[in-house]
């Protein structure tokens, strides 16, 4: 078992206090962490996540503390928030693809800028702008291979998306996901490399695209 749903599960486990690597594979490590979460939540311990357990986990993540299940449903278009660690927190009610993109992007936050980084291999020591964008989108299987900034000019559908928007021209590309910008430049600090920011950047000259349905 692997893919977008597993990435979402792994991301939610971490947010619920059981740190789990987001790799999209339901292997022994993830199974063990599911059992830890089940014990913590006083649920039957079997390493599996049926719909009832998934609902409990989602509510825990929404509230920010484990064990409480009473929480109102937020608006489906609520913005993501930026944590103190520089990583994004997906809004409750976001589509699984959005949660997976955010989880994947969080994996490379803090990596250095590296020209061509992320284009030869998904896992790299650093990432450039389009390599960072590709890595994030690949987390939800929205790209099958790394794209360069020029290729992002024709990726997906034209115009802004409700949840995910790509901005690209021949020399640069970046994403806006649930209201946060994921970019390697124009950030709030002097360092470069993939980061989330609440600050937007000028978009004149950029081609605007989005994944279908998002």
Automatic annotation (TrEMBL):
Region Disordered: start-end pairs: 187-214
Any matching Pfam family: PG_binding_1
Segments forming domain Peptidoglycan binding-like: 2-49
Composition bias, Basic and acidic residues: 196-214
InterPro entries in UniProt: Peptidoglycan-bd-like, PGBD-like_sf, PGBDSf
Protein name per UniProt: Peptidoglycan-binding protein
Phylogenetic placement of the source organism: Bacteria, Bacillati, Actinomycetota, Thermoleophilia, Solirubrobacterales
